[in-house]
């Protein structure tokens, strides 16, 4: 039997792990989507989504941020600091910090930031 999900996630920035606390957050079920430019800025305040603002993160020397989740998070909102250029599943790749991101979902933005996260997390990208 699998262990129950924890209520935190870990974000790796420049080789340093930062724990994110998701205790008490509820997230509704929804499908992965990429928001168009005419959508409102950010997720609705009352939808309960965990929102990650890329402007608040410090990428590594290659512009990469890796998000690890140990909480069982299944969906989240990303508020970029630029336009989404590409998304998909990463092929064989190791970050500057030595993290193998092969098989992780990636989202690349025109700001030069690429976000990697577990492929089983559904992501909505909202304009900033």
List keywords for this structure.
mainly beta; 128 residues; disordered N terminus; globular; 6-stranded mixed sheet
Can you walk me through this structure?
The chain is mostly beta strands and 128 residues long. The protein has one domain. The protein is built from no helices and ten strands. The strands form two sheets. Strands 2-1-5-9-8-7 form a six-stranded mixed beta sheet, with no helix packed on it. The protein has a four-stranded parallel beta sheet with strand order 3-10-6-4, with no helix packed on it. β1 (8-13) and β2 (16-21) form a beta hairpin. The protein is globular and about 35 Å long. The relative contact order is 0.27. Residues 1-6 and 24-40 have low confidence and may be disordered.
């Amino acid at each position: 039997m699998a262990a129950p999900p924890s209520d935190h996630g870990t974000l790796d920035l420049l080789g340093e792990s930062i724990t994110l606390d998701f205790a008490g957050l509820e997230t509704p079920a929804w499908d992965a989507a990429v928001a168009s430019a005419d959508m409102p800025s950010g997720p609705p305040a009352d939808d309960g989504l965990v929102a990650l603002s890329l402007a608040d993160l410090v990428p590594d020397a290659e512009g990469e941020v890796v998000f690890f989740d140990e909480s069982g998070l299944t969906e989240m909102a990303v508020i970029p600091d630029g336009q989404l250029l590409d998304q998909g599943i990463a092929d064989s790749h190791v970050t500057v910090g030595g993290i193998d991101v092969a098989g992780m979902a990636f989202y690349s933005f025109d700001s030069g930031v690429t976000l990697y996260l577990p492929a089983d997390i559904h992501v909505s990208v909202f304009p900033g």
